[in-house]
Design a protein that fits this description.
- Helices cover 36% and strands 12% of the residues.
- By secondary structure, the protein is α/β, with parallel strands linked by helices.
- The strands form 2 sheets. Strands 5-4-1-2-3-6 form a 6-stranded mixed β-sheet.
- It is globular, with a radius of gyration of 19 Å.
Length: 303
């Protein structure tokens, strides 16, 4: 199985994409790019079984209705006092509130924060995916999932704050160390220096890990009461099992059984067999971290 993770930004420079190849016993980071353009993102989303995108996939329904009414010069007067609570109902989606309840983290408002610029780009990418025949369902039932790397890290018991920005290279390296220790079956290989130098790279890797969790049924999905909103607003997939279970449990992707059998009730432990780590190569060059390396197995469709 191949999963992709996209740390999306409004501009290419801060956009990263990661490709992770999964087997029954481990996972290999096959390709990692920081400074990814639309064509690279579409290629990753098209090639992967599932792709996790770190960006809101839609806007709050009340906000959209409010804008439409305002545009038509026919705004409905709010029944409640026009204050903070009224604005909050416009600003955050149902999935943002659920994620806050489950993790204590409140994501940026796609209606009232600068992340709206990124969401515009995301909407265009989703439209292009749909144009070429890929299933795009904002609730997570199609090829793509919405992910929130910081929330995934928290659910997996890893540092989830204070690792972003050039001033936080120390905490970023600590996060990478802890990720490697928690997931010894994940082989960053030649891309480890990129992860240690860019929080965008790390977020893309975490997005690809979360896509795996969602693909094998180990992530939150909207319930019946939330499905209608999730279909238009998007739904954040949060891990529901330990990081170790990504390689030790079975799951179904579009009805096909994948990987090894479930090892028993509850959360499984990691199997003993692991992949041999690849030889590490430096990725530092004239263009710094904006580089990518590919493995010859990238186009393989086998596990």
């Amino acid at each position: 199985m191949l999963t992709a993770g996209i740390d999306l930004a409004a501009e290419d420079a801060n956009t990263a994409v990661a490709w992770i190849r999964w087997t029954a016993t481990g996972a290999v980071l096959e390709e990692l790019t920081v400074g990814a353009g639309d064509d690279q993102l579409l290629r990753a989303a098209s090639a992967a079984v599932k792709a996790g995108i770190d960006c809101p996939l839609g806007w709050p329904e009340p906000f959209v209705e409010f804008l439409i009414a305002h545009h038509r010069r026919d705004p409905a007067a709010p029944t409640d006092p026009i204050g903070r609570d009224w604005r909050r109902r416009l600003a955050w989606r149902r999935t943002d509130l659920v994620t806050h309840e489950l993790t204590g983290r409140l994501s940026l408002s796609v209606a009232a924060d600068r992340i709206a610029h990124t969401a515009m780009r995301c909407a265009a990418l989703l439209a292009r995916l749909a144009e070429v025949g890929h299933s795009v369902d904002r609730s997570g039932r199609g090829r793509v999932f919405e992910v929130y790397p910081a929330a995934s890290l928290k659910k997996w018991g890893l540092p989830h704050r204070g690792y972003k920005g050039r001033q936080n290279i120390g905490p970023l390296n600590n996060l990478v160390n802890l990720l490697i220790a928690a997931a010894p079956w994940l082989h960053l290989g030649e891309f480890e220096p990129m992860c240690r130098g860019s929080d965008h790279a790390v977020d893309a890797v975490v997005a690809a890990l979360t896509a795996r969790a969602a693909a094998i049924g180990q992530a939150t999905r909207p319930g019946p009461a939330d499905l209608a909103a999730a279909t238009t607003e998007g739904w954040i997939a949060l891990p529901t099992a330990p990081l170790t279970s990504l390689t030790t449990s079975a799951g179904r992707v579009d009805g096909i059984l994948t990987d090894t059998p479930w090892r028993g009730p509850g959360w499984p432990t990691q199997s003993g067999a692991v992949l041999t780590p690849p030889v590490r190569m430096s990725t530092t060059g004239s263009n710094g971290s904006r580089a990518s390396r590919r493995r010859s197995t990238r186009h393989s469709t086998s596990e």
